[in-house]
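Schema walk-through. Below, the input block comes first and the output block second. Nothing else is stored per chain. Lengths vary across the set, and this one has 207 residues.
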Amino acid sequence: MATTHMMQRRSPVDLTLADVAKEAGVVPATLIQRFGTKRGLLLAACRPAPGGVPVQFGAARAKYGSPLKTLIELYAECGGFMVLTQGLIDREGRRWPMAGLIPGVTRMTDKLAALGYRHAAALHPNLLTDGGDELRGHEFRYSTWDCDEEGAGADIAWQVRGTRTEAPIDSGGFVSGNLLASYLHIHFGQCTGIASRFVEKLVPRNQ
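--- output ---
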């Protein structure tokens, strides 16, 4: 429990055995004796996590009553974002139907479409952060999202720019209720509270 609490406040890179020991009210030597290394401690803390997955999915199904509506509680990055659009157009021009939860289609390209780190400002509150907050991520893709402004409208998720000073500002991704999807890969350890907000949004606490 102490390790989990500290991971909500610090990334695994910044976390130390001394931090966890202080949170647990023990000395670091106690953790070393039991877990050996920080890696051993983190692995032990993560081991029970898969057991909670059926509970989370069960709560989502009970809340919405149908598999399709359950999918609305969803965070998708890159390939997952592509799957949720209306369709995918391959390099030969063939269109393949996708889930249809997001307007527009993704189109495969012969050349790299985007590569690099990104600053992403949330245009609306979403599963990860409040509107106006800025997170960091990266993109690496060989596809583009084709969607006119009328199709996405006010549901565009992010205002995105590269790390260089002269990098242009762009927008992308889709947000609607508890659905957030985009090409961005976002590291949850960069900011305190991202992971806990994500879990709270997906599985609301009992009132």
